[in-house]
Amino acid sequence: MIKENLETVLQNIKAACVRSGRNPEEVTLIAVSKTKPVSMIQEVYDAGIHVFGENKPQELKEKVPQLPADSSWHMIGHLQRNKVKYIIDKACMIHSLDSFRLADTIDEEAAKHGIIMPVLVEVNVAGEESKFGIAPDEAEEFIRKISHLPHIRVEGLMTIAPFTDNPEDNREYFRRLKKLCVDIKEKNIDNVNMCNLSMGMTGDYEVAIEEGATMVRVGTGIFGARDYTVKA
Ligand SMILES: *Cc1c(COP(=O)(O)O)cnc(C)c1O
């Protein structure tokens, strides 16, 4: 079933790219494997997708050594500062940077490993109270401040759009995030490379691609529904 799901998602990505005149190679599919067992992740790997997303540091840390070494892992969920050390040498990118203090901690931990960690700034583009993220009108100043940290590199923006049954409802949020990204890019801030837009999940990734997503985070659409009552 996973293989068929994956094929459907890849076809949908391609179709959304065709509709919007984009090259499918500009869009990275991140298979969101949270709560799912290693056996299922291996199936996705074997089907040709080697890029995974996890939202819990401990889970990411435990899964990484169990999958082939050429898998890459994105930290997509809210990150507490005391957990950064678990993932700093395992994640290829952190999508959920939402505070100065977290930026400092990532910078410190990355320095210990002699690496530069690519990060995306999470923006609460719909202004939902329940969501983490920087307010859109504070994003530029936030990025200017963290751009001086030598061991992180800002590579774009991420958002988690509102939950909705109608993906069209989120189009305006994706459009706003794209515009914000372009506006900040035009400022040419040193050490900032505004090229990535991580937006779109199972319910709305096609709309997100039409609006410029370079990374879509798809879990349910590949792995099926998650069962939070069973421990992965
Ligand atoms: C779980 C999760 C996803 C994937 O959600 P689906 O609706 O299952 O595709 C994407 N992004 C983040 C940050 C998540 O936590």
Strand content: 15-25%
Outline the low-pLDDT stretches.
none
Kindly name the structural category.
Answer: alpha/beta
Give the distance, in angstroms, between the N- and C-terminal Cα atoms. Answer: 19 Å
Whole-number radius of gyration?
17 Å
How many distinct beta strands?
8
Q: Looking across the biggest beta sheet, what order are the strands in?
A: 7-6-5-4-3-2-1-8
The quaternary organization reads as single chain
Catalogue the ligands. pyridoxal-5'-phosphate
Helix content: 25-40%
SSE string, helices as H and strands as E = HEHEHEHEHEHEHEHEH
Number of helices: 9
The coarse silhouette is globular
Described by strand count, sense and barrel closure, the largest sheet is: 8 strands, parallel
- Provide mean pLDDT, rounded: 97
Relevant terms:
232 residues; alpha/beta; 8-stranded parallel beta sheet; 9 helices; 18% strand; globular; binds pyridoxal-5'-phosphate
In words, what does this structure look like?
With 232 residues, the protein is of the alpha/beta class. It is built from nine helices and eight strands. It has helices at residues 2-19, 38-46, 57-63, 84-87, 100-112, 139-146, 171-185, 205-210, 220-223, and strands at residues 28-32, 51-54, 72-75, 93-97, 117-122, 152-158, 192-198, 215-218. It has an eight-stranded parallel beta sheet. Helix 3 links the parallel strand 2 (51-54) and strand 3.
Write a brief caption for the model.
This protein has 232 residues and is α/β, with parallel strands linked by helices. It has helices at 2-19, 38-46, 57-63, 84-87, 100-112, 139-146, 171-185, 205-210, 220-223; strands at residues 28-32, 51-54, 72-75, 93-97, 117-122, 152-158, 192-198, 215-218.
